[in-house]
């Protein structure tokens, strides 16, 4: 197998006495659309939080492109090419859709410690560049017509596309999506799938948490399953559907 683009070894996270993620070792193949499935409470979102630096592991390591990135903060990981969306998007409701995309963390000039010393014209130039890029990205996710709408007024599905737009501002090599299709109408789900596949053809790797088995069957390979904090399965989506261990996990047997 090719060197994994993202991997974990013995990744573990406790919340008090409760072990939410238990020695999970994953290898994500570059260029794949890998599905991460498992019943509610299995630890999927916690794994994402550990991969993206939102939470620190109790034990274990995370590597990106073979480099140990355990414990790095989300902004730093984003700068290194790891982007993610959240299960529940929380845009800045009163800011416009465009402004929400423009605030994606990019290590923007004008905000760092050098900011006060930079020429104003330089900052304006940088802002114009970020605006142009944000409009381009909004156009890609089909939200350009809503650029000036308050982000609080768009639908749940449009918020998921907005999240993807924010992620794409950083041009990440690896994109983690937490339940992108949950609560999204079929039209927007199809747009999202089309965009994921287009980005994947351009070489981006995806790790996607999804409950909708149709989505997983049609778009994810391989599939990794978690149950009670442990990785219990890796294989194709077809194998996942036929696997007794997984059926047990879902039925809580
Ligand atoms: P999934 O995304 O697979 O549904 P989560 O990763 O959200 O599962 O949660 C896994 C388990 O860890 C659940 O039992 C959940 O209640 C618990 N958990 C998650 N986050 C926290 C937290 N911040 N504090 C305490 N328990 C948590
Ligand atoms: Mg979750």
UniProtKB/TrEMBL annotation:
Keywords from the UniProt entry: ATP-binding, Nucleotide-binding, Transport
Domain (ABC transporter): residue spans on this chain: 6-253
Pfam families, alphabetized: ABC_tran (PF00005)
GO MF annotations in UniProt: ATP binding; ATP hydrolysis activity
InterPro entries, A to Z: AAA+_ATPase, ABC_AA/LPS_Transport, ABC_transporter-like_ATP-bd, ABC_transporter-like_CS, P-loop_NTPase
PROSITE patterns tied to this protein: ABC_TRANSPORTER_1, ABC_TRANSPORTER_2
Keyword Nucleotide-binding belongs to the record: yes
UniProt GO cellular component terms: plasma membrane
Signal sequence, renumbered to the chain: none
Tagged with keyword ATP-binding: yes
Protein's name in the database: High-affinity branched-chain amino acid transport ATP-binding protein LivF
Species of the source: Albidovulum aquaemixtae
Organism phylogeny: Bacteria, Pseudomonadati, Pseudomonadota, Alphaproteobacteria, Rhodobacterales
